[in-house]
């Protein structure tokens, strides 16, 4: 028989936590990715959906589960490799976050809500946008937190109406796929959500919140709560992402083949919702982008502040430089920023995925020796994919074609798995430090 506390955990806390996790990963910038993926995948939209949700849903949720086991910070995710490696990894993660997804929010805002209605320059949009981001980052306020809680439900309701309209009014006649490798293309496009990085960076915030709100719960109860909430959040993300990919596929013959991501989202929204709802979606997406940018700049500044003995000056300098970088990068279009992000993601994402998985598996399978050598194996076999992404594909091809899945830019997967199995066979019987 359940106690009153267990009943409260299963109903109220589960709902709140699941929605918080969903909101964490359901970033406004991510909305522009699935429709174009479906648009290009055509009749193979379902295969692309599976790939996209592996890296855009499954891995991030596993990252939250890993956080529930660690009960620590981003530094704790990689410290088993070495403290020095962990510090470098943290710097890389925050540098990528402030240099790419943060400016991308300004670019999405410009293309969704500014350019179509006012025609102003991207530079002006970026300047005003990041001036406001800096003001909010320096003067911390709960206004954005409250606003964020309203934005996600609003966007979600509009998207569900858009998806339902497309699914129930259009014929399921798909054009042939433009993709040669739909499943791996979906996985690699899922990298662009940055959700695995989001899981390791801000997942700890969710854990801290649960610890504060559920003080009476045991470790196992909290772990079970997080696992159940993660499952429901994952189902929600899968349905939304899958619905957006399917919607894009249903409009495969309705737009020019070279249409941009934001233009496709606007076009589909206008055809299914009408111009008024399309405008509302643009405004909501822009506000959600803004809260994301403030969160990234604030989080990065907090990290640097901590590294410099809680220096307020370090915080302000980091916030200023982050906003300046946002202005410079944010004036480029979304497609260009996504393209520029590919090399960094081809390097950092495999490491992040492996760190998440190693922190999820039982401790007896993730001793420090296994941890260290599997991560270094992943880094070694990620280098060819990184080099290929910056234009050296043909040069290195003769040397890496023998690596399984290298043609899919996933050459690190099998070597990391083999290293994990072999190292556990070697070290499996040795006692694992607590």
UniProtKB/TrEMBL annotation:
Coiled coil: none annotated. Keywords: Amino-acid transport, Cell membrane, Membrane, Transmembrane, Transmembrane helix, Transport. It holds the Pfam family Branch_AA_trans. It is found in: Cell membrane. The keyword Transmembrane helix applies. The chain crosses the membrane at residues 12-32, 44-65, 77-97, 117-138, 150-170, 190-210, 231-251, 279-300, 312-330, 336-362, 374-397, 409-427. It is a multi-pass membrane protein. It comes from the Bacteria. InterPro entries: Brnchd-chn_aa_trnsp_Livcs (IPR004685). The keyword DNA repair does not apply. Belongs to the branched chain amino acid transporter family. This is Branched-chain amino acid transport system II carrier protein. It comes from [Muricauda] lutisoli. The lineage of its organism: Bacteria, Pseudomonadati, Bacteroidota, Flavobacteriia, Flavobacteriales.
């Amino acid at each position: 028989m359940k106690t009153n506390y267990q009943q409260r955990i299963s109903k109220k806390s589960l709902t709140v936590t699941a929605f918080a996790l969903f909101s964490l990963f359901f970033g406004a910038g991510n909305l522009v990715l699935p429709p174009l993926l479906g648009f290009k995948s055509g009749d193979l939209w379902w295969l692309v959906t599976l790939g996209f949700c592996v890296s855009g849903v499954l891995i991030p949720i596993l990252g939250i589960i890993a956080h529930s086991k660690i009960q620590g910070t981003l530094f704790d995710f990689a410290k088993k490799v070495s403290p020095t490696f962990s510090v470098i990894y943290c710097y890389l993660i925050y540098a990528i976050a402030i240099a790419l997804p943060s400016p991308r929010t300004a670019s999405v805002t410009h293309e969704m809500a500014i350019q179509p209605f006012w025609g102003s320059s991207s530079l002006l949009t970026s300047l005003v946008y990041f001036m406001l981001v800096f003001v909010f980052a320096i003067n911390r306020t709960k206004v954005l937190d409250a606003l964020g809680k309203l934005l996600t439900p609003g966007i979600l309701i509009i998207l569900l109406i858009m998806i339902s309209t497309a699914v129930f009014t259009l014929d399921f006649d798909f054009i042939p796929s433009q993709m040669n490798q739909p499943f791996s293309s979906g996985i690699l496009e899922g990298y662009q959500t940055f959700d695995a990085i989001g899981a390791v960076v801000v997942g700890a915030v969710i854990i801290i919140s649960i610890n504060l709100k559920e003080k009476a719960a045991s470790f196992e109860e909290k772990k079970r709560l997080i696992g159940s909430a993660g499952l429901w959040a994952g189902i929600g993300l899968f349905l939304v992402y899958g619905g957006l990919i399917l919607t894009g596929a249903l409009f495969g013959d309705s737009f020019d083949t070279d249409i941009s991501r934001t233009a496709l989202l606007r076009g589909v929204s206008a055809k299914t919702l009408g111009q008024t709802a399309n405008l509302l979606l643009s405004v909501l997406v822009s506000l959600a982008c803004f809260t994301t940018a403030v969160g990234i700049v604030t989080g990065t500044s907090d990290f640097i502040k901590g590294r410099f003995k809680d220096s307020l000056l370090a915080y302000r300098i980091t916030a200023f430089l982050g906003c300046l970088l946002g202005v410079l990068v944010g004036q480029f279009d979304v497609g260009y920023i996504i393209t520029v992000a590919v090399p960094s993601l081809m390097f950092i994402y495999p490491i992040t995925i492996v760190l998440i998985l190693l922190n999820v598996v039982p401790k007896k399978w993730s001793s420090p020796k296994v941890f260290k050598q599997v991560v270094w194996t992943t880094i070694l076999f990620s280098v060819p994919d990184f080099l290929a992404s910056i234009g050296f594909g043909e040069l290195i091809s003769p040397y890496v074609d023998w690596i399984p899945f290298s043609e899919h830019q996933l050459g690190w997967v099998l070597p990391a798995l083999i290293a994990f199995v072999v190292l556990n066979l070697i070290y499996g019987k040795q006692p694992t430090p607590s």
